[in-house]
Write a structure and sequence with these properties.
Elements: E1 2-3, E2 9-10, H1 17-25, E3 33-37, H2 38-41, E4 50-51, E5 66-69, E6 83-91, E7 105-109, E8 121-124, E9 128-130, E10 134-137, E11 159-161, H3 169-177, E12 182-186, E13 190-195, E14 200-201, E15 212-213, H4 216-226, E16 230-236, H5 241-254, E17 257-261, H6 272-278, E18 282-286, E19 290-291, E20 296-301, E21 304-309, H7 313-331, E22 342-346, E23 357-367, E24 370-375, E25 392-396, E26 408-413
Bound molecules: adenosine monophosphate and magnesium ion (MG).
Length: about 425
C-alpha cells in the first residue's frame, strides 16, 4: 500500500479480477442527474424511485363490449328459462356513467367505458340475444365478472420504476399512463477513448509496412455505449510520453472518464502508467491475476475513473468485460453493475496453463435446460476472431486444474 496525492490508498499488488473490480467499485459514485422527457427516456438510467400518482385504471371499467347488469338479476337464468333485461342507455369509453342501474335494467357498455353505479357484472355481446331495447341472458353472471377494478393494473404509490434501472418500453407506457411527462435520469458520462502505439492507423487510411488498423477503438466505443456512456474517440497518441501525457491531461479536464489502450505492460514503449501519473491520475491497480487481460491500469482522477487496457484486442475486451464494464455501469447510475453469475457446463476440455484465473470465451448452448459453453477454439490474447461468436465468459479459477468436458464453471453473459 502506498499513499497517493489525494490520499487514496492504492493497492498495487495484483489481485483476482473479482477482488480488483470490487475494490475499484468502492471509488465510483454515479454522475449527476438531469430531467428528460418521455421522448428521450428510453434506455436512460432512472435516478429516482418513481411512484404511481394514481390508480390505473382510475375507475371501474369494462374490458369488453356488452351489457352492464346486476348479477343478482341473472341468478335464475338458464337455457330453458332465460332472463330479459331492459336496456336503458349506452355508455362509451370517455363517457360519464351517470345512470344508477336498477333491478331489471341493463346498460349497453363499450370497451373502456366506466361501470355505472348499481351494476356489478358485464355480459359480452356474444353471450346474449339482444334487440335495441332489451337483452336476454341464459346463464347466471358472477358478481364482479368482466369488470376491471380501479387500481387493478397499478395502485397509487406503487413504484413504477426504481432508481438505477434503465427505462424500457414498459416503463414508458407506465409513466405515460400516469400523465408523468418525464423523469430524473443520470446524465450519460462522456468518456474519452484514446489509443496509443506508433503502429496504429485509422480505418480509411492506407496500411503500410507492419502498421495495423485501429480495431480496439470501435469495439471499445461500442461496449462503452452499451454501458450507458457517450464514447468519444480523441485520437492516437503514438508511443511518445509527452503526447500521451498531454492528451491525457486535456481529456481528463473535459471528460467524465477516460479509456486508453496499449502501452500498459512492462516493455520499453509501455509509457501509459507513467503518463497517467504525470497527468495526475492516482493509480489504484496495475495488473490483474487473470488471462487474457492481465495487463491493465485502473485509477482515479479526482472522481473520474481512468481505465487503461492492453492493446491486444482480446485482452482489452476480456479485461473490460470483467472489470471496466462494471466500473462504467456503476458510474452511469445502473444498479445491476456486477454481472449475474451463471453456472456453465463446459462442452470441451481445456488444458489451462496460466496461474491466474483463466477466462474462457465461447458460444452459449442450452442442453437439458442447462447453460453450456462451446469454448472458442482460440483463447489467446491477440485472437480477435474468437470474440465474434462469444456470448459468455467462463472463469477457470486459478486453483482449478485442467478443464474436462462436463465440468461446471461460474461465468457471466457478455451479450
Ligand atoms: P501494447 O499493449 O501496446 O503492447 O499492444 C499489444 C498489441 O496490441 C500490439 O500487437 C499492438 O500492435 C496491438 N494494438 C495496440 N493498440 C491497438 C489497437 N488500437 N487496435 C488493434 N490492435 C492494437
Ligand atoms: Mg503499444
Amino acid at each position: 500500500m502506498q499513499e497517493c496525492r489525494t490520499g487514496i490508498r492504492r493497492q498495487l499488488k495484483k489481485m483476482r479480477f473479482s477482488e480488483t473490480r470490487d475494490m475499484l467499485l468502492e471509488y465510483i459514485n454515479p454522475v449527476d442527474t438531469e430531467t428528460v422527457s418521455l421522448e428521450e427516456l428510453c434506455g436512460r438510467v432512472i435516478a429516482e424511485d418513481v411512484a404511481a400518482r394514481m390508480n390505473v385504471p382510475h375507475y371501474d371499467r369494462s374490458p369488453l363490449d356488452g351489457y352492464a347488469v346486476k348479477s343478482s338479476d341473472t341468478a335464475s337464468a338458464s337455457e330453458g328459462s332465460p332472463v330479459t333485461l331492459r336496456i336503458v342507455c349506452e355508455i362509451k369509453a370517455g363517457d360519464t356513467a351517470d345512470h344508477i342501474l336498477k333491478s331489471g335494467e341493463a346498460v349497453k357498455i363499450l370497451t373502456g367505458a366506466p361501470i355505472p353505479d348499481g351494476a356489478d357484472a358485464v355480459v359480452k355481446y356474444e353471450d346474449t340475444l339482444y334487440t335495441a331495447d332489451s337483452v336476454t341472458v341464459s346463464q347466471p353472471l358472477l358478481a364482479g365478472e368482466n369488470i376491471i377494478r380501479a387500481g387493478e393494473d397499478v395502485k397509487t404509490g406503487d413504484v413504477l420504476v426504481g432508481r438505477g434501472t434503465a427505462a424500457d418500453t414498459a416503463v414508458l407506457g407506465l409513466l405515460a399512463s400516469q400523465g408523468i411527462a418525464g423523469a430524473e435520469v443520470y446524465r450519460k458520462p462522456n468518456v474519452a477513448l484514446i489509443s496509443t502505439g506508433n503502429e496504429i492507423v485509422e480505418v480509411g487510411t492506407a496500411l503500410t509496412g507492419s502498421r495495423i488498423y485501429n480495431s480496439n477503438r470501435y469495439m471499445l466505443a461500442a461496449e462503452m455505449e452499451r454501458c450507458g456512456c457517450c464514447a468519444v474517440y480523441e485520437g492516437c497518441a503514438g508511443d511518445d510520453m509527452s503526447s500521451i501525457a498531454g492528451l491525457l491531461s486535456r481529456v481528463l479536464s473535459s471528460y467524465d472518464a477516460v479509456v486508453i489502450t496499449g502501452g500498459v505492460s512492462a516493455g520499453d514503449y509501455d509509457l501509459v502508467p507513467d503518463a497517467l501519473e504525470r497527468a495526475g491520475v492516482d493509480i489504484l491497480v496495475h495488473g490483474v491475476k487473470m488471462k487474457p487481460g492481465m495487463a491493465c491500469v485502473y485509477g482515479m482522477y479526482r472522481s473520474k475513473p481512468v481505465i487503461a487496457l492492453s492493446g491486444n484486442p482480446a485482452s482489452a475486451l476480456t479485461n473490460f468485460y470483467c472489470i471496466g464494464r462494471s466500473i462504467l455501469r456503476k458510474y452511469s447510475g445502473a444498479c445491476d453493475y456486477v454481472p449475474e453469475t451463471v453456472q456453465i457446463r463446459m462442452l470441451r476440455d481445456f488444458s489451462k496453463k496460466s496461474r491466474g484465473d483463466r477466462i474462457l470465451r465461447g458460444t452459449m448452448k442450452v442442453e437439458k435446460g442447462m447453460i453450456c459453453m462451446d469454448p472458442s477454439p482460440e483463447q489467446g490474447n491477440v485472437i480477435i476472431s474468437s470474440m465474434r461468436a462469444a456470448d459468455l465468459l467462463a472463469v477457470v479459477p486459478m486453483e482449478h486444474g485442467p478443464v474436462a468436458a462436463g465440468d461446471v464453471l461460474d461465468g457471466f453473459m457478455i451479450r
